[in-house]
Design a protein that fits this description.
The chain crosses the membrane at residues 35-59, 66-88, 94-126. InterPro entries: At3g27390-like. The protein is mainly α. The protein has one domain (11-128). The protein is built from 4 helices and no strands.
Amino acid sequence: MAAARESGPSKRQRKSKARKVFAIEGWPRGVYVPIAIFVGLLGFMVDFLVIILLLVIILLAALKSLYIMVDFLVIILLAALKSLYMLLKGWHRLAILLWPFAVAGALLGSMLASIILGYYVAVVVYQLM
């Protein structure tokens, strides 16, 4: 029995070893508090910057969609007014029965071009910001 007790570390030795694992030897305990405050503030600043960056990305995406919608509506409005003018003047000059289909094709082509142009404008605005 006595040999079994002496072979293993005592409770006091185990507690002292456990305490030394978490402590840096030679540093006073008061040093940890400013380091912890600094690390906490640094983490707060990083989180704050990440949130600001995410908000900027969301705002830019909203602006891009706004530019696309405004560009689409303006080009469609101009194309519709132009198609009415083309329909009346072209039909008056040329007695072609298929002229309305040509005008409708031009209107659909301008709609497709306005979508592509809107995405191009969004890319340019994103690069400028």
